[in-house]
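Input/output pair, single chain:
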Amino acid sequence: MRFDEAYSGKVFIMSGSDFEKAKAVIYGMPMDWTVSFRPGSRFGPGRIREASIGLEEYSPYMDKHLEEIDFFDAGDIPLPFGNAERSLHMIRDYIDQLLQLEKFPIGLGGEHLVTWPIIQSMYKKYPDMAFIHIDAHADLREEYEGESLSHSTPVRKICDLIGPENVYSFGIRSGMREEFQFANESGMHMSRFQVAEPLRKILPTLSGRNVYVTIDIDVLDPAYAPGTGTAEAGGITSNELLEAIQLIAESDINVIGADLVEVAPVYDHSEKTAIAASKFIREILLGWVK
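Output:
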């Protein structure tokens, strides 16, 4: 992948044109090859960028302006349609390059399996890392209908790689009985249904640690985010997710990267899912990129 030229398509609002100067890099992972219900999240990165044009550049939550952050929108990784294994290799290689260049990666999905190769790369650089997972689904299956490469398996793979005691899931309200049993018995942390309040209690225990954060947009109730492949009733509000992002920003953890996944625009003609996602990305840029 080349980073020496600005992305020729639509970019996130106020993206800079100088990759070398940028501290953070936004990149897209347009992959939905393993989804089990409704496809379409491969169109999420582009729609999030387009929706960002409606944002104010100033955040009253963080009391910061996007002009204060040097970031570069590198566009989408050109993933091969339908080839999950090769796509994951390409994502891992891409993150390897960003980390070698000391960039803060902010990924736009795509299905949630795309987080797995990111953590493989992150773990090589940060073997002491912890992982915060904000989602409706446990994603702790070992396989789905015989396929180990599935959007329902990334967190289980990450547990096996970095140790379940370093994995912290929030907002979970869906999964197989065996997934909840694994969470209870393995030593990982799982908070069901809520995000902000349990996160407030956990963050002090992660003080000083390197932490990667993944957000699945379906942690929101479908009333706030209908544009996703596997919507689950009973979720949190947009306001609670904004609060969670701010709590992380105000904490003493060292955020080393982040992604936001599973926006599927075709299921939301109101576009409120992409609009919300773009606002969350703005807050991540302003709050987590030091």
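The longest strand covers residues 254-261. Residues 24-288 form a domain with the Arginase; Chain A fold (CATH 3.40.800.10).
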